[in-house]
């Protein structure tokens, strides 16, 4: 078996459904498990000055929202999704720890041409850090 | 069908057999065609001063050598290889034109940690230029 557990890194942009669909087709062809992960920005990193008391609440709300949207994507994938995970913090770090926790052997991520530099930098980090194969899907 | 024609970009290092093997397994699982490509350095770019008369001969010899080694890899792949191609020049440019010529829909390439910066730069070029999916396999 080429890959046993595929994880798709989802940024919840409008192209996410396309990426999930591609990941689902690949997982189905290979008989692999499929999971979805979304890594949110770390809100604590955005506020270096006084921290608002509502930060925790805001973070929780964003996390719930992300979880809801991930579940929607999972339900429309046309293939059973084993785990939907929402984390926050450094993308490559979080994905590497997920890889270890869930015995993932393939990471799928998209890249947009429009906010290129940001994605390139996440992708570059992933390329240099991920211990497993990485499938990069170009998005419009 | 997720992918119809997979091409593996081979640098003819000692890890090439591992990469070919992985590409062959994936192609087999997906019922896709498999091709191998090696992009040689462009010798003309290395000599900016006086150009030796034997440059053409040297280039031809290197190309024949690369073709022989690609054929060996193809024969040991355990899966039929449709095309073995040797080119020279800019990696991402050559691969993009191969993608178009052969209707490739997935490119597989390895990356070494040891001569990282060089590969990162080829990979970065590939990420930003390839119109199709790119599978990056970490090598030791």
Question: Gist?
Answer:
The structure is a homodimer of 140-residue chains. Chain A has helices at 16-30, 43-46, 55-75, 91-102, 116-129; strands spanning 5-9, 33-40, 83-88, 106-112, 133-139.
pLDDT averaged over residues of chain A: 85
Helix percentage range of chain A: 40-55%
- Radius of gyration of chain A over all CA atoms, rounded: 15 Å
Question: Outline of chain A, from the CA principal axes?
Answer: globular
Could you name the CATH topology of chain A? Rossmann fold
Strand order of the biggest β-sheet of chain A: 3-2-1-4-5
For the record, the CATH class of chain A is: Alpha Beta
Sketch the topology of chain A as an H/E string, one letter per element.
Answer: EHEHHEHEHE
Please report the number of helical segments of chain A: 5
What is the CATH architecture assignment of chain A? 3-Layer(aba) Sandwich
Find the CATH superfamily of chain A.
HUPs
Structural category of chain A is: alpha/beta
Spatial gap, N to C terminus of chain A: 31 Å
Largest interface: A-B, 24 and 24 residues
